[in-house]
Amino acid sequence: MNALELRGVVKSYAGAPPVYALAGVDLAIGHGEMVAVVGPSGSGKSTMLNMMGTLDRPTEGSVLVDGLDTTDLDDDALTAVRGRRIGFVFQRFFLLAGVTTVDNVANGLLYTGRPLAERRAAAVRTLERVGLGHRLTHRPNELSGGETQRVAVARALVHEPAVLLADEPTGNLDSQSTAAVMGLFHELHAAGTTIVVITHDLTMAERLPRRVRVLDGRIEADSAVAG
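User: That's the sequence. What structure does it adopt?
Assistant: Structure tokens below.
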């Protein structure tokens, strides 16, 4: 069973002729893999992330998350899949200003129905995991860019998802903060977390164990495929 699988995924938009953001993508990502998805702007990599994360539905094909076929799930069921099985890290941090680090992370469990004390305890454990146990009561404006992105990573991890999807996670960071966040991703990967990083940074991608290149809505190359 794979952590993520796209089977014949097509995403098209009406037109004459139709516009294809994805044109028949087959991709399997196993548990514990760390994968970079690269490609120029307009290549389809962000659309692919939306499919992996069940944020959008394919026109054709199917998306499996942790072995679950999401094809026929309704919106409520897809929300539950995201809440239990997928963590998201974006270029923008989307943290709440004026809210402590621990409560920003605890908000990642807001829709689980768990009591506040339990959510905060899980947030503390996750912040310690990403090296921010000493920043629990700090607010976003009191953190560096790298620390802020680590909080965003902790929020994505707090519900222990099957896979972590990161969309240009270092796009707004300086080189030092970029190195720190990528170091964290490598640590998480070494500990068994499945990570997919969407990026246009080829230098960063080359440092990841597997690289998938997307062009014109198709997979042009996959380092996991010989030849």
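Strands lie at 4-13, 19-29, 34-38, 60-65, 68-69, 86-90, 163-167, 195-199, 210-215, 218-222.
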